[in-house]
Amino acid sequence: MNGFTPNNNTNVIRLLSEAIRKCNKSRNRILMGAVVLCILTLTFVFGTAYGKINAEYTKNIRMDGTTASTYIEEGTKQQYEKVCSLGYVKETGRRMKMGEATESGKKESICSIQVLDQTAWEKMMKPAYTGVHGTYPKKQQEIMLPVKTLKKLGIDNPKRGMKIALDISISFFQTEKEEFKLSGWYSAYTEDNGRSKEIGYVSEKKLKDWGYDIKDGSDILICQSNDMDWKDTEEKLYEDVPMKDNSQQIIATDTAKNRAVKEMTGSYGMAVVEAVVIICGMFLLVYNVMQISMSGDIRQMALLHTIGTTKKQIRKIYIRQIMRTIVPGCITGTVLSVLLLRYLIPELVGRQYLNGYGGAEELQIFRMEILLLAVAFTLLVILGASEQVIRQTVNRTCIEGMHYTEQNGRKKRHRRRTDLGKGTFNKKKRSETQELCFMAWKNVTRYWQRFVITVISLFLGIEMFLIVMVITTGSDYANIINQRPDFLIAGAFSEYAQKDGSGTEYQTQSPDQDPLKSEGNNFELLYDNDYDEFSPISEKVRKQLWNLAGVKKEESHITEGAYVLSTISRDGIRPLEEDTYLGNNVEYAEEISIDYASGAKMIEGMDADTVQIVSENELKALKTYVEKNKLKVDMDSLENGTGVMIIHDHKLSQKQEKQAEKAVGETVCLSPLKNKEACIRWNSMTDKERDKEDEIIKAETSSTEYTLSGYLDNQADGFPEIHQTWHGAEGDIYYLVSEKGFNRLSTKRKRFCMELNVEKKKEKKIMYEIQKILSAENQRRKSNTQTSLDGEGEAGIFYIARSDLMQKNADYIRGNRIMFGSISVILLCVGLVNYFNIMFTRIVGRKKELEIMRKIGMTRRQERKLLLLEGSYYVLLIAGLVASVGSIILKGINVYMRKQLSYFTFHYPVGAVAGSIVILEILCVIICNLLILKKIKK
Predict the structure, then answer these.
(1) Dist. CA 739–CA 745, nearest whole Å
(2) What is the 3-class SS of 598-662, one letter each residue?
(3) What's residue 5's pLDDT?
């Protein structure tokens, strides 16, 4: 054999690693549990967050009908090219709105018609639809229609190539009769959202056939970066893209992904911070188990090093025995993650989650890539800690390694005692309890580095749980609904307007949207009751509702005002008009006109506008808002009754905002509508007779002159809460006036809407009474057909109950709470298990030390008390950090989240803090008693 003695190092290494594994049996069990919990926690938390954000993103784009969140009205080719070159713009497309389509020979609109370029269809519209069959129209006579439109046409089983005859109303003067071939169809989720009509798509070739070009005058659709909010996007686009005129506007909203992240974590920045905190907590959970047993491991490896084991062999031995523990842990963690995320949570959430937007199948919280990353992270942490043991072993002498105790740093310098013999030993000795407290504190802080890491680890474990609790309860979807009054009662739109979708948006929109914001205008609202005496809520009904037993009058509100005709000076209304065709120096062709383009000095409105009375509190809030933001608004004229203010729903471009500042002080004249008698008489007249009647009514009706106090955007940051009635339509003007100002008008106040908050015990009874009162009133109005042009009777009253909204969204709220609650529970378990691991491994790792203490006289009772005190010190430190540093963190999260979510509600988690501290102390008692009992039995 060439003089060499054969060896069997492989078997020796296997035997040694197995022996060391058995010796560290207790530690390895805890390590395996830590591995399982780490993998499960990382997979669950990040998988749930990722799945929830994606599900909300899907819901948002389907609710919006597009992934585009910003558009420029009627953009030019140069603007399109400029937008395409911007770094913060991900996708850019074009959309041309062409008008309405009706079934050939009929009048009722079945859908609107639009033309898209390829990017707009593929990247912006198609992702928001489901069940897409066929292709987007390419040929001149091809059309793509939604399923609901096809059903209106009597087509239940559509086929590609089938012929469909439609009349297309492109403009007031242009209507085209077309016979299309169906190129495809799809299902949309915006079809029933109030006024959001179904959309049919035709090709660019057909657009050119009608005499238009998508490259000129089409809306520019934009998908900006997800980390930009709508205000930043608007500002940047106004800076980077020159507007073609003063009235061209950029309309921006937060991206669907941005809104989803905000609802989940507040923002991308907060999401990163939370992710880092959770990863650090998981790192410390696993690392602590390895760190606490590190001294013993180093001493074991040093013995092997002493007898000549090489560094390579030490690594093999140590890693082998560690892998025998963590591989089963990884397998167990993987299996539990799959079972929990693939099957259990989706089953608990239920199929009704996101009902109406794709259902629970859109919620995919199990992600294989996240699971693999969690396993890899856990392995890296353990192997990194193992490498530290190996490095510490081979970098020390054998003697140093065998006596390693983690005592790092400079040795303490002992001050020489100079007071010996001067009564030092006559000082009063500590009692038994005091001595045990002293010993326990010294034991806890013996290894300072380990002590600091342990405390931080325990604190992070509990703080993670509390942070998720605060965000979960604060951003609960129910908080949006709870901001609503118990009952909102308002006047409904006319019957013909509701058929067109006006005033019915609230029935399908999400609870965070204003129920009284509509695209329907005042002409549609007052179509059946366009006379001065009409009040959406009559005085009789107001008294009946207000005096219901259980109504909290101090917490309820009535919005009052009137519908009026307004005439505004040219410069006063200029911000709301397209002012591109007139020069700066305009010679007034006439004094008053309804046409802005005429160049008249005063512009008269054709339809009624809204004047709302603002309360004293609302006036104060407006004044504070104006002063804080240094806005150019004349609040004095509004307060003293000589001025009126115009508020709008973010309708002005940047240049129009500057024009609005110059409009302060301009003249506004308000006059009441014609009375009921004149309205009935007017309805029975011919067109010529009506023109003459209008002149007579105008001459006889008194007008009140005001100054324009200014324009305010009710969508701006910090705008105070004003209880508005119907608003948001193009062309309507919404005035605010003080009590003094309204009293100058020659009309009586009307009740627009009522917000009633009631006693919970009487809510059901009050709902029944409201239904009864409104039903009787609506029956009465239905019979009053004289004021209606179509003889259909006056518009009625409707109500929205908060309890109905809560019930309607119950499945969605339940699904959210299950997901967020599961994350909270698993993070609490991480904190508790971390504490258990630390306490258990500390006690088990000090077997010899505790044996020596017993040999020199320590009783079982004293040993139990010592261990309880050590555990209690950790609990007290955690409680102190949570109450101090933790509270500061939670308050900071409250401030941050309130800026991100208007409905965020902060509740300090007193119960969660107290409960977690109590559970930690109970764990401490259980661990100490179990271990002592185990020793007694042995």
Answers:
(1) 10
(2) HCCCEEECCCCEEEEECCHHHHHHHHHHHHHHCCCCCHHHHHHCCEEEEEECCCCCHHHHHHHHH
(3) 44
Q: Are 525 and 795 in contact (CB under 8 A)?
A: yes
Look up residue 813 and give its two tokens.
């709220």
Q: What is the pLDDT of residue 409?
A: 40
Report the alpha-carbon angle 625-631-634, nearest 5: 90
Give the list of residues 6+ apart from residue 516 with CB closer than 8 angstroms, or none: 488, 490, 506, 724, 725, 726, 727, 753
- Which of 279-283, 308-312, 697-701 has the weakest average pLDDT? 308-312
Give yes or no for residue 201 having a pLDDT over 90: yes
Nearest in space to 349 (alpha carbons), one of 808, 815, 809: 815
Report yes or no: 497 and 195 within 8 Å, Cβ to Cβ.
no
Mean pLDDT in residue range 557-570:
93
State which of 318-327, 384-393, 487-496 shows the largest mean pLDDT: 487-496
Does the pLDDT value for residue 713 go beyond 80?
A: yes
Distance in angstroms (rounded) separating the CA atoms of residues 935 and 929: 10
Q: Which of 562, 486, 480, 479 is nearest to 754 (CA)?
A: 486
The conformation of residue 551, written as its DSSP 8-state character, comes to B
Q: How many CB atoms lie within 10 A of CB 738?
A: 24
Tally Cβ neighbours within 10 Å of residue 24: 21
Identify which of 314, 473, 326, 487 has the alpha carbon closest to the alpha carbon of residue 392.
314
Place of tokens 């948006």: 505
Find out whether 165 and 112 touch, Cβ atoms under 8 Å.
no
Helix (H, G, I), strand (E, B) or coil at 106: coil
**Whole-number Å distance between alpha carbons of 733 and 12:** 90
Distance from C-alpha of 757 to C-alpha of 552, rounded to nearest angstrom: 6
Tokens 């390693």 belong to: 404
pLDDT digits (tens, 9 = 90+) for 614-658: 999 999 999 999 999 999 999 999 999 999 999 999 888 888 898
Q: What does the DSSP assignment read for 174-186?
A: -EEEEEEEEEEEE
Tell which residue, 49, 801, 52, has the closest CA to residue 353.
Answer: 52
Cα separation, 233 vs 595, in Å, equals 34
pLDDT value for 296: 65
* Strand 109-116, strand 199-202: pairing: parallel
Selection from 334, 277, 260, 253 nearest residue 37 by Cα: 334
Q: How many CB atoms lie within 10 A of CB 269?
A: 13
Hey, what are 380's tokens? 């890296």
Closest among 509, 604, 586, 468 to 886, alpha carbons compared: 468
**Two structure tokens written together for 128:** 């928001």
> What sign results for the dihedral spanned by CA atoms 180, 185, 188, 192?
positive
Beta bridge partners of 96: 115
For residue 102, how many other CB atoms are within 10 A of its CB?
A: 16
* CA dist., res. 223 & res. 90, Å (int): 6
Query: Would you give the distance in Å from CA 411 to the centre of its chain?
Result: 55
Q: How far is CA 936 from the centre of its chain?
A: 56
Neighbours of 900 (CB within 10 A): 17
